[in-house]
Design brief:
The chain has 257 residues and is α/β, with parallel strands linked by helices. It has one domain: 3-Layer(aba) Sandwich (Rossmann fold). The protein contains eight helices and seven strands. It has a seven-stranded parallel β-sheet with strand order 3-2-1-4-5-6-7, with helices on both faces. Helix 4 links the parallel strand 4 and strand 5. Helix 4 packs parallel to helix 5. The chain is globular and about 50 Å long. The protein starts with 8 loop residues before the first strand and ends in a 13-residue tail after the last strand.
């Protein structure tokens, strides 16, 4: 365990997911105290045990709640801040969306997916930034869907594109506070949300045709980028969305619909 993030406190939402858990581990490995937040306490306990087995001596706390709820998010932020009287790193990973042709979506479904992908990050920023009194870093999780059309994922594409616009504007506004805001833009990555896709080799093969480096992503690939953007090595980087996708943005998304 290194000390690059020693003395820092981080909150990772979606902490029981593949990317959230891997990001929490990457931050803990370099010395940060990490709070992982998610809706399922049993899954959070499992995440903490996994991280501690990989990083003995890490300080990992759990907080059960919904990152889309203002009340739960404020409570989680207060808990994280209270551990050492500071909040330095915020990684809101909540996001997602279901397949469905645009004309088959209801207005309620469309609004819900925008909330999941944009409003959840806004809530984290709105109530987290006032606690980041010594500067800090915010790292959001976008998707290649923000820049590449994807059949039957219109609301998800719109949500992630909106998230990246939020990141750019927040980076500008929060710069006066010494807070940097960036996003990681994963390609197809193994996670709880993509289990069904990875179980279908025909679907994976369609993606592999469009990925120059010849493999899909793993949570650790995304976590490494989160760690870079959260740490001092990226001290002159803000308002950016980094593609971590094996080069897929050089090509296109496969026609799955």
């Amino acid at each position: 365990m290194s000390s690059a993030l020693a003395g820092k406190t981080a909150l990772v939402t979606g902490g029981s997911g593949g990317i959230g858990g891997a990001s929490a581990e990457a931050l803990a490995r370099d010395g940060a105290t990490v709070v992982v937040m998610g809706r399922r306490e049993e899954a959070l306990i499992g995440t903490r045990e996994t991280i501690l087995s990989a990083v003995p001596g890490a300080r990992i706390e759990i907080f059960s709640g919904d990152a889309g709820s203002v009340e739960d998010m404020r409570a989680a932020l207060a808990f994280a801040h209270g551990l050492a009287g500071r909040l330095d790193i915020l990684v809101p990973t909540m996001g997602g969306g279901g397949f469905g042709l645009l004309l088959d979506k209801s207005v309620e479904d469309f609004r819900t997916e925008l909330d999941i992908n944009i409003t959840s990050a806004f809530i984290a920023m709105r109530y987290g930034v006032p606690l980041m009194t010594d500067g800090g870093t915010i790292v959001c999780i976008s998707s290649t869907a923000a820049t590449m059309p994807f059949p039957a994922l219109a609301s998800y594409c719109a949500g992630k594109a909106g998230l990246e616009a939020l990141v750019r504007t927040a980076a500008d506004e929060f710069s006066r506070r010494g807070i940097r805001v960036n996003a990681v833009r994963p390609g197809l990555t193994r996670s709880n949300a993509t289990t069904d896709m990875f179980a279908n080799q025909a679907v994976i093969d369609l993606f592999l045709e469009q990925i120059p480096l010849g493999r899909c992503g793993e949570p650790a690939d995304i976590a490494a980028a989160v760690r870079y953007l959260a740490g001092p090595e990226s001290g002159w980087v803000t308002g950016q969305s980094f593609a971590v996708d094996g080069g897929q943005e050089l090509r296109r998304n496969p026609p799955l619909a």
